[in-house]
Automatic annotation (TrEMBL):
Phospholipid/glycerol acyltransferase domain mapped to chain residues: 65-190
GO molecular function: 1-acylglycerophosphocholine O-acyltransferase activity
Keyword field: Acyltransferase, Lipid metabolism, Membrane, Mitochondrion, Mitochondrion inner membrane, Mitochondrion outer membrane, Transferase
PANTHER family linked: TAFAZZIN, TAZ PROTEIN TAFAZZIN
Entry protein name: Tafazzin family protein
Amino acid sequence: MPLDVRWPMPPAGRPSAIWNVASHVVMPTVGSLSKMFAELCSYFRYHNVDRILAAVEKRPSDVPLITASNHHSCLDDPIIWSMLPMRILLRNEKMRWSLAAHDICYTRELHSNFFALGQCIPVVRGDGVYQRGMNYCVELLNLGKWVHIYPEGRVNTNPKEFLRLKWGVGRLISDSRDCPIVIPFWHIGMDKLLPNIEPYRPHVGQVVTLNVGLPIDFSQMKLEMEAAKADDLTKRKAFTDVIQTHFATLREETEALHELHLRNRRKAK
């Protein structure tokens, strides 16, 4: 299924000067406004953000980073990145590249260019793990970049449901030249901040809890699967299953933390 617009992304690692300047306007502006909204209009509670900060700021320049999270609202990106300090939000080279749905963000040329400048990569649901957007992510990872993915593959409009993850995240891990640092995290409350029903308007005063998990080291697993000459499908499934297990643990932890924050918020009123 082709995009309805022209492919909007620059060559990986080689954007034009004009694209680079425009992106350095869009990214810090959106990041700053998102952080302002999260801090002034909502009650965000972040846990273990230092785990992401350490990976973003201290990993060697050639080591790729993958973050993966649940997806409960169309506002998840960019608001979840309000957890990052301004010293990162203002520096494009430190920020994530994120996959975005083609049928939401890439329906018109203007929208397409805006999201591309925001380092969002179009992905077409149903086109599989070898589509152009996924290939682009692998290219970025091979340059040591940070890629964020929502492995549920869609906005989960029923947060009580625990979706089976798509294998795209497994492909990113499998096909990265150097084993990436992989950090999962879970958030609760974004569907209250922007409900998935019309009218689609943000609500202020909502409690949102975001909990970052421990980095997952896939290096030994990759070596073992390569030694066993595992096929691509087997590798993708195995890596994705590990993340699914981490998601299950993170979900339980975050639900408990969120209930605590809700009780504290009710007491404070």
